[in-house]
Write a structure and sequence with these properties.
The complex is a heterodimer. Chain A is mainly α. Among the domains of chain A are: 252 residues, no CATH class; 54 residues, no CATH class. Chain A has 32 helices and two strands. Chain A has a two-stranded antiparallel sheet. In chain A, a hairpin with a 4-residue loop joins strand 1 and strand 2. In chain A, helix 6 runs antiparallel to helix 9 and helix 31 packs across helix 32. The two termini of chain A are 50 Å apart. By secondary structure, chain B is mostly helical. Chain B has one domain: Helix Hairpins. The longest helix of chain B has 32 residues. Chain B is elongated and about 65 Å long. The chains are: A mainly alpha, B mainly alpha.
Amino acid sequence: MTVMKSRNDAFGLLPVGLALLLFVWFLTFLPEVSDGKAIRYAMDWIPSLGITLSFLIDGLSLTFALLITGIGSLVFLYSNSYLSGHEHFVRFMLFLFSFMLSMLGVVLADNLIALFVFWELTTITSYLLIGFGHENETGRRSALQALLVTGAGALAMLAGFILLGMTFGSFELSEILLKSEELKVHSLYSVILILILAGTFTKSAQFPFHFWLPNAMAAPTPVSSFLHSATMVKAGIYLMARLHPAFSGTNLWLWTLTIFGVVTAVIASILALRQTDLKQALAYTTLMALGTLTLFLGQESGYAVTAFATFLIVHSLYKAALFLVVGCIDHAAGTRDANILGGLGRVMPFTAVAAGLAAMSMAGFPPFLGFIGKELKYAGALGVASEPIFVSGAVLIANSLMFAVAGVVAFRPFWMSERSNLPREPHEVSAPMLAGPIILAILGTFFGIYPDILQRALVAPTVASLLGNIEDSKDLKLWAGVNVPLLLSVMTVFLGLLFYWQHRRLRNILIVVIGRAPSFDRGWDRILDGLKGFAAWQTQILQSGSLYHYMFVTFATMLLSLSVAIFLKPMEITLPDHWVISWQGIALILLIIGGTLITTVTASRITAMASLGVVGIGVAMIFIGFSAPDVAITQLLVETLVVVLVAVALLRLPTLESEVGNRRPIDAVLAFGVGLTVTVILLSVLSQPLDLRLTEFFEITSWPEAYGRNIVNVILVDFRALDTFGEIAVVVVAALSSYALLRTTHPVSSDQGEQR
Amino acid sequence: MEALLAVAIGVLVAASVYLMLARNVLRFIFGLVLISNAANLTIFVAGRLTVGAPPLIAKGTEAPADGVANALPQALVLTAIVIGFGLFAFALVLMFRAYTTLGTLYSDEMRIAEPPEDAIG
């Protein structure tokens, strides 16, 4: 065990160090980027398709990169203790680190295709991390659900990217963003926008695609904190922000983002209050935050975009901290149930302080950064292009509910009366686990007191990435005077206290109401079941296991496709003058047709054999009559062998009986149809001019190059010798297989089941 | 002549489709023989028909006389006949083996690999 432990520490600290190094490296870009500059690196990747591996560092991507690497290093440190001694610890760290690199790729990529690849890499690593507890069926289901929902959206998004790239002849974001005016009047604008939004809405869990995110809480808590609150679910938000300069300003953009954002925010904050599992409650408040961010991205005003940039950072700081706190509670007390937890403040003082600071930021108390974020949200909501009262009202309700949830998650478990029936005797967690929540919570406080540092470093450059002008950024102030946002803040506190005070009663009402509403999660199961049912149904039709069905489907498909070809491309059938009709030819053809018909209808084995022979000989005579002596000789030889073999086999087989069954007339119609289409197509082929270049080549070169006077033989053994070799191989394989089959012949068994 | 042969090929194809849709696998094999013949004739006819001029180069000349038959489809058909025979021989042995093991020539009754009760759905 001690050996195991030291291995964990050695491996476990490596990602912490690497993430920290990356964080510091990104910090060095701050001076340049906060002056409003953008830095671009590019190298060729697939030049023939115009795909480059190019990266862009501007305010928006640097903000994300710092959040990813900064929170990442704290989460790695936390995981060292949280999963200490876990048998798959190294695997977990590998997944988590791969995720971090993929996520950096998403936010830094300047090429749409590269962005898509990184995007899908985050989907896959998220799948692996949600399903980390793969022994658990819920974990597997949640992982697959997240993969399918976000993967399906991403496919639509890829289609949107390709349309966008084809429209502008470039996959570089930095070039496309310059063509905003051209794009907004383009006929494909709506199509491209809807396809891309399908990707961003599924990734960022907007209603009605929200259901996968609460289920993703099956992942270990560090994952929930890192992927499913601070970073990955914001990839969709990031992309909408990235495309904001090119796409925003139309009614479609404004209304789609506003409506989806508002609906998601309100529904999520109501659902959050319903939860008793602390992690689930936080998951729903994350949904609420994602909805709010989407809502503000719909707007173009400086306030709205400043609110977006600020809330993005605020939320990542406090939400990551709170998830880590819930992980600490779970670790220490063995449960996350809000109904049982209580009185942890005395035994876990440091966790309680971190939780308190983060929760006050979430609830929006001054002097925390959350307060500034909330003020800006109200200012942004009041300044939306239309319906400011509707939007502000929605934001007010969402904020008040979030206030109440902050109390339930981070206040009650620590300071309400002690409950004795905890599964485990609680204790304070170790320093590595405390580092993350405490540092994040202190940052939220620090930036609340000194907002101008954050504004100059990150908020203003981010606003500049979206609006193009650093001057559009509004100031972050703790005290902005007595104004409408401040009044709304006061209302938020009162409403929030009311909701918190009544939260048990509200929860009981919600459980009844939501229990009656349709569940998207169950709907998802029905969609999957339907898909599987459809697959089983069409497999049963196509792969019935019955030879008759296979043949029927094959020939019906052949008839259908040939008929479509005839119908779509009207064929000209002309009969050239030089076609000679001889009575010998007519006689031979009648012979073949007669033999064919007798073979088809006879119920006698001997008659069938004889008429098959007649057809074969008739075909051989055709070859003789039309200048193909070699072919005729082969045909005669083969025909003789066929008759001999059939005769030998028939001696051991029962007599033929007439086919019974009421499907024979249908079979006859299908057979007639296939035969007719073959004749029609062959006639139209014969009406076309014949390209004789290949034949002429063989005629000219046969003697000078291969020294053969029989051109057919020269083609077979010289020009196309490898084909002939293949032909011989086929015959040899057939002979060997036949020998093997015959050698192991068993007598007829009465019980077929034993023959497996 | 080509048009008449096209009709004959249509008859051959129709007959073989009808036979291959039969439950009795012996009939299925008859259909296989007929459809091989139909395919060979199709290739042959598509290269056009020539009477009395096989694709040979006379002694002392370097190229065949004008108007000899098209050599290319003949070479293709020759290969096809042999491969068709290989397929036929194998199918016949397979059918024979199936009959000696299962005691039936009806494909519906050959269900060792997929017993009816295991059917999907």
